[in-house]
Amino acid sequence: MSTTIPPWARALLLADRAVHSSVRLAALVRTEILLAGLSADAREAVNAAVFSAEDTYAPGGPTFAHGLFAWERAAFATAPFPSSGRVLLGGAGGGREFAGLSALGYEVTAFEPAPALAEALAAVASRHPGSHAVCASYADLVRAARGDGGPLAAIVGAPYDAVVLGWASLSHLTDPAARAALLAALPAIAPGAPVLLSYLGPDDDGRANGRVERIRSPLRRGLALALGSAAPAPGVGFQPGAGFYQRFSAGEIEALAAGAGYTAVLHEREPYPHAILAPRSRVTAAR
Ligand SMILES: C[S@@+](CC[C@H](N)C(=O)[O-])C[C@H]1O[C@@H](n2cnc3c(N)ncnc32)[C@H](O)[C@@H]1O
Description:
Elements: H1 7-37, H2 40-52, H3 62-66, H4 70-76, E1 86-90, H5 96-103, E2 107-112, H6 115-125, E3 132-135, H7 138-145, E4 162-165, H8 176-189, E5 195-198, H9 216-227, E6 236-239, E7 243-246, H10 250-259, E8 262-268, E9 274-279, H11 280-286
Parallel strand pairs: 1-2, 1-4, 2-3, 4-5
Antiparallel strand pairs: 5-9, 6-7, 8-9
The structure holds S-adenosylmethionine.
């Protein structure tokens, strides 16, 4: 005997599917309008506002409470990442990596652009003499490296043994020129120092193949045409709790590194995409 699905259950499941599709469609249209209508600077301002509201990254929040991830601990224990010394940490959030690195014995100079998180970061840093925290972005780091002042002017010139671009923070630079400028600034600020970075990898969870997703490309092209602007690059997106982001393939990260004179001496996709970059001259000399 086969059991039939009652008509009311069928209707409920159909209605549920329709609601889900409408919500995904609305989110897709919202993202594409925001991407088409906002400049790189405006996207950065939105990201700072989005992350300021994300208290998961501050003391008392679950992400902060998690402490260092296992892959971060493993990276910090992998040469050429030094076993001690001074670390420059960007995109530091509310101080999760700051607290972890300090507990491992590093002296940390950190910065974070979202004002509420920068405040939490400063409170964490105040418990570690010799460490510093500043409210600033990667654009401010590039500015300081060029000798153009700004909030990070006072921290360039110190010797750094390593650089950490905080968890996935590189992915929040959606402008390719800003990413290249950041990577180019690092050897000027921390010559010879390895760089640990992490990023959002390709969206390979299958959602990008859904029916709703099929309208993204034509909508993207249509909005660009209507506004006379360039269509956003593939892999750029927006999420209400994560702001604007760029997904990268491993090859894109390695090309970005190579463009600034770095080589990836470690590059893992799992459990979270991350790489340790070393200056190419240092890697060649070690051979
Ligand atoms: C996923 S959160 C991680 C926060 C912190 N590193 C942690 O792991 O708890 C990404 C961080 O990147 C920061 N970020 C976004 N855009 C940035 C930019 N242009 N310059 C520097 N940091 C940025 C965000 O404000 C946010 O704190």
